[in-house]
Design a protein that fits this description.
Blueprint: E1 3-8, H1 11-23, E2 27-32, H2 36-42, E3 47-50, H3 56-65, E4 71-74, H4 81-93
Parallel strand pairs: 1-2, 1-3, 3-4
Length: 94
Amino acid sequence: MQRILCVGINVEMLAIRCAVLEASGYAAEFTTLANVQDILQRWKFDLVILPTMLSEKEKKHIRTVVPSETQALVLDRLVFPRELLRLVAEAFAE
């Protein structure tokens, strides 16, 4: 099962995003900016999703701590569930 980490600020939005991913067969977890480095050091993920709401500085920092074997999907806008699933599937197909 592919493991996905959703990173963001809004915990409620992250929980919904993870529920959508889990309903589609992914193992999804979420974390806030404060904990992302610790989580990435402790656990292995196949994909990290970064939302559009983060600043470029925050996105850049997170990308520097994402392990090289882990893909990063940087969303450029707010996406609805169907589009999120399509983007995730495309990221795994690459």
